[in-house]
C-alpha cells in the first residue's frame, strides 16, 4: 500500500511539473531574470555597485547595492538559484516530452480505422450520406492522394492523414529548448572570461580572470603581443572606431597568427575569442637630451563631457610646463605656469624651453581586451536554429480523415488541429475529385458531412 501511495505521489508530482502552466511560469521567470541581468551590469566590483546603486540615490530599478550583492544579481547567471530554475525547467520539458509529446506522436502514426456504426453512439454530429450507387474505394484513395493525404486501406474502411510534421515539430521545440539549456550549463562549467589592459608593444598572458567555470582550463602555451593600437576619428573628433593589431606565438616563439581587431570584429583563435572593449592613454615619452628620456603619466580629465589628458613637467624649482592632449590625432598643447599657450607640438618635433631641447617621442596607449572561452555557444546556436525551424513547422496543420464505404452507404468524417478553413477546402476538393472520377456529375448526390474537431 505504501508503494502505491509513493508511486501516486511521484506520478502526481511529475504531472504538475510537466504541466503547461507551470512550464510557462518557469519560462517567464527565466525571461524576467535574464532581462534583470541585462539591465544590471554583471561582474563589476563592489565599489561600482555602491556608486551607481547607492542607498540614498534613487534609481530606475528601485534597488540598491546591498540588494544586488545579497541576491547575487552582480553575477546572476552563475547563482545557484538561477541555475536551479533552469534545471527545473529542463526537467519539466523532458517529462512533458516523454509523457505527452512522444506518446501523442506514436498515437498519431497509428492506423486508426473508425467503426462508423459504433461511432454514431457517441458522435451525433456524424451524418451518413444518402444511398449512393457505384461508391468506389479506389476513387476515394486517388482523391485523398491527390490532396497529399497518406491513405491506409482496410476492407471497406479508409484512414488518411497529412501534416504529421506539425505533430512532430512541438517535440523538437522541446528538445531545442533543452539543447539551449545544456549549452548554457556547458558554458557555465567549462567557460571563462578574462579582461586585460595591455600597453602597446607589450607581451601578455591571461592573468586577470573575471569569471571561470569549475572545469574550465586556461591556455598555458599561448603568448600574445599588441603590435599596434590606433583610433579612427570622425570629422567632429568623435571616435569612430578603435583597433588593436595582435600577434600570437607559441612557447618556442614561433609565429602563429596576426590580426587587427575592433569592437565589432573579434579574433577567434583555438576556441578563444578576443574582443576589443576599451582603451586608454597612459603617458607621454619625452626626450630632453640625446641620452635623457622622460616618461610622464597622463591624467584623464572630464570637464562638461569634454575629455582630455594632462601632465606636468617641472623645468626648475619655480618653472614647469603643462602638456595637454585631446586625442591621438591632435598635437600636444604646451602651456607655461601662467596658463599661456607656448606652442603646439607634433610627435618628434623639437622645442627649446630654457635652452633645453624638448621632443615628444611617443604617446603611450593601452588597449582593453576581453578574452572569452564559451564552449557552449555553438550548442546554444544549434538549439536556437532548431527552435526557429521547429516553431515554423509546428504551424503545419495535422489533419485526419476517416471514410467508410459499405454497399450504398458513404461516410466521411475528419478532424484538424488548426487551419480549419484550409481543411474545409481540402474536403471540398476531395468531394469534387471523387465525384468527377465516380462518373457522377451531381455533387448533391454525394453529401459529405465532416466533423471538424479542434484538438
From TrEMBL:
Q: Which domain of life is it from?
A: Eukaryota
**Subcellular location, in the record's words?**
Cellular thylakoid membrane; Membrane
Database matches in InterPro entries: Cyt_c_bgen_Ccs1/CcsB/ResB (IPR023494), ResB-like_domain (IPR007816)
Q: Which UniProt keywords apply?
A: Cytochrome c-type biogenesis, Membrane, Plastid, Thylakoid, Transmembrane, Transmembrane helix
Sorted alphabetically, the Gene Ontology cellular component annotations on this record are: thylakoid membrane
GO BP terms in the entry: cytochrome complex assembly
Could you confirm whether the keyword Nucleus appears in this record? no
Q: Which residues form the ResB-like domain?
A: 21-307, 360-426
| A Pfam family it matches | ResB
Q: How does it sit in the membrane?
A: Multi-pass membrane protein
Self-association and partners: May interact with CcsA.
What's the stated role of this polypeptide? Required during biogenesis of c-type cytochromes (cytochrome c6 and cytochrome f) at the step of heme attachment.
By sequence similarity, the record places it as follows: Belongs to the Ccs1/CcsB family.
Q: What is this protein called?
A: Cytochrome c biogenesis protein CcsB
> Where does this protein come from, organism-wise?
Cryptopleura ramosa
Its organism's taxonomic lineage begins at:
Eukaryota, Rhodophyta, Florideophyceae, Rhodymeniophycidae, Ceramiales
What's the encoding gene here?
A: ccs1
Amino acid at each position: 500500500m505504501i508503494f502505491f501511495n509513493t508511486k501516486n505521489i511521484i506520478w502526481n508530482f511529475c504531472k504538475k511539473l510537466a504541466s503547461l502552466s507551470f512550464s510557462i511560469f518557469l519560462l517567464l521567470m527565466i525571461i524576467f531574470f535574464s532581462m534583470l541581468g541585462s539591465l544590471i551590469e554583471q561582474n563589476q566590483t563592489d565599489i561600482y555597485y555602491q556608486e551607481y546603486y547607492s542607498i540614498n540615490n534613487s534609481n530606475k530599478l528601485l534597488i540598491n547595492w546591498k540588494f544586488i550583492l545579497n541576491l547575487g544579481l552582480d553575477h546572476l547567471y552563475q547563482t545557484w538559484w538561477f541555475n536551479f530554475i533552469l534545471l527545473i525547467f529542463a526537467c519539466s520539458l523532458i517529462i512533458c516530452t516523454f509523457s505527452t509529446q512522444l506518446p501523442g506522436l506514436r498515437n498519431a502514426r497509428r492506423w486508426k480505422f473508425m467503426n462508423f456504426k459504433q461511432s454514431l453512439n457517441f458522435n451525433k454530429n456524424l451524418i451518413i450520406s444518402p444511398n449512393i450507387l457505384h461508391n468506389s474505394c479506389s476513387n476515394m484513395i486517388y482523391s485523398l492522394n491527390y490532396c497529399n493525404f497518406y491513405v491506409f486501406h482496410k476492407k471497406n474502411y479508409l484512414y488518411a492523414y497529412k501534416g504529421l510534421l506539425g505533430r512532430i515539430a512541438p517535440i523538437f521545440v522541446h528538445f531545442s529548448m533543452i539543447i539551449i539549456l545544456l549549452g548554457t550549463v556547458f558554458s557555465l562549467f567549462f567557460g571563462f572570461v578574462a579582461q586585460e589592459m595591455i600597453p602597446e608593444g607589450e607581451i601578455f598572458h591571461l592573468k586577470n580572470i573575471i569569471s571561470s567555470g569549475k572545469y574550465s582550463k586556461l591556455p598555458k602555451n599561448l603568448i600574445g603581443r599588441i603590435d599596434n593600437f590606433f583610433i579612427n576619428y570622425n570629422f567632429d573628433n568623435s571616435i569612430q572606431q578603435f583597433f588593436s593589431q595582435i600577434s600570437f606565438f607559441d612557447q618556442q616563439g614561433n609565429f602563429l597568427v596576426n590580426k587587427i581587431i575592433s569592437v565589432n570584429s573579434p579574433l577567434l583563435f583555438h576556441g578563444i575569442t578576443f574582443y576589443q572593449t576599451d582603451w586608454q592613454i597612459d603617458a607621454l615619452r619625452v626626450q630632453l637630451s640625446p641620452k635623457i628620456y622622460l616618461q610622464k603619466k597622463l591624467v584623464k580629465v572630464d570637464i562638461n563631457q569634454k575629455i582630455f589628458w594632462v601632465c606636468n613637467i617641472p623645468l626648475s624649482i619655480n618653472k614647469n610646463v603643462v602638456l595637454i592632449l585631446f586625442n591621438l590625432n591632435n598635437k600636444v598643447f604646451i602651456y607655461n605656469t601662467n596658463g599661456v599657450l607656448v606652442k603646439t607640438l607634433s610627435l618628434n618635433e623639437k622645442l627649446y624651453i630654457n635652452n633645453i631641447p624638448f621632443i615628444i617621442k611617443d604617446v603611450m596607449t593601452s588597449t582593453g581586451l576581453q578574452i572569452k572561452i564559451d564552449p557552449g555557444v555553438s550548442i546554444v546556436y544549434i538549439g536556437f536554429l532548431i527552435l526557429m525551424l521547429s516553431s515554423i513547422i509546428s504551424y503545419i496543420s495535422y489533419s485526419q480523415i476517416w471514410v467508410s464505404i459499405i454497399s450504398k452507404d458513404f461516410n466521411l468524417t475528419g478532424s484538424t488541429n488548426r487551419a480549419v478553413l484550409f481543411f474545409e477546402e481540402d474536403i471540398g476538393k476531395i468531394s469534387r475529385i471523387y465525384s468527377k472520377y465516380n462518373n457522377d456529375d451531381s455533387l448533391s448526390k454525394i453529401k459529405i458531412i465532416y466533423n471538424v474537431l479542434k484538438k
